[in-house]
Amino acid sequence: MWKDRVMGQAEPRSNGSRSNALVFMIGKDSHGHWVVQDQRGLRGGLFIDRAAALHFALFENGNRPQAVIMVPGVFELKISGTTPPARHLLADADVRPYSRAA
Questions:
Q1: Cβ–Cβ < 8 Å for 23, 36
Q2: Is residue 49 part of a domain?
Q3: Which domain holds residue 53?
Q4: By three-state DSSP, how is residue 1 classified?
Q5: How far apart are CA 23 and CA 37, in angstroms?
Q6: How many structural domains is the chain composed of?
Q7: For the whole model, what pTM was predicted?
């Protein structure tokens, strides 16, 4: 059931499809809270700081930093499960994948 061990931690076996990987967006709302939301609008939340928001997003997406997007400007949390808010957000925003600064 486990494919590999990386740095002492078990890594789950991939099913070969990267389309199942969720993209999570991180930004700040109009009140200065850190917001995380998945592309479908099903998961997310408000966080005390950027580190906590990033930790949640990476945990939820299987530790894939390339599937975490920092959203510039105001990013309000809207979780509905009916209309994916991320589709228009990703098309209109100047988004950049998460990358670490030295």
A1: no
A2: yes
A3: 21-97
A4: coil
A5: 9
A6: 1
A7: 0.59
